[in-house]
């Protein structure tokens, strides 16, 4: 066979694509219809709809529904990962930890924000006449954010000794407050997980204890009422 003269069959891509969209669209509609009669327990599958539109826009070649607006929705396929936690236990755990330690988090962020503002302003006052990297206060804020969060890109650095001393002092002070939320959340997660394990262990012990108490109570009631019934039977027969 001559591979050069061999012609491959041309597949009707637009028609095949249209048929697939119709088939999967009908399947999506039937799934919603057959999900149950109670609307309270039936979702609208919004994430499935968004990801389906994203898949269609990513797989199309501009023949059916692919447009420049839909092509920008390709990144929404990442939302499929949200379905891994349908019950929302992860977000509930995170919300409970943040709510339980909200005062500590607000205090740490507030002090860290004040350190960021003052350190950036003082370094800006010292460096603005000698360093072109600190022409505006916004440049100083960018430097302060990158420095106090320990990222350190190195695109802006103080050049005067006064600026370097201020930077070192505020860095040591600010890093301690910027790192506090991580420790607060970490300890909060550990305490919350430990509390959940304790609650599960308590429930496992409570159910057998409750069933045992019910069995003993039923036996006691039946045993205490039996002599009374026997006495009533004897009185009836004697009469």
From TrEMBL:
Protein name as it appears in the record: Ion transport domain-containing protein
Location of the protein in the cell: Cell membrane
InterPro entries in UniProt: Ion_trans_dom, K_chnl_volt-dep_KCNQ
Mode of membrane association: Multi-pass membrane protein
This protein's record includes keyword Transmembrane helix: yes
Transmembrane regions listed in the UniProt entry: 18-36, 43-66, 107-125, 137-154, 166-191
Taxonomy of the source species: Eukaryota, Metazoa, Chordata, Craniata, Vertebrata
Main subcellular location: membrane
Molecular function, one GO term: voltage-gated potassium channel activity
Catalytic activity: K(+)(in) = K(+)(out)
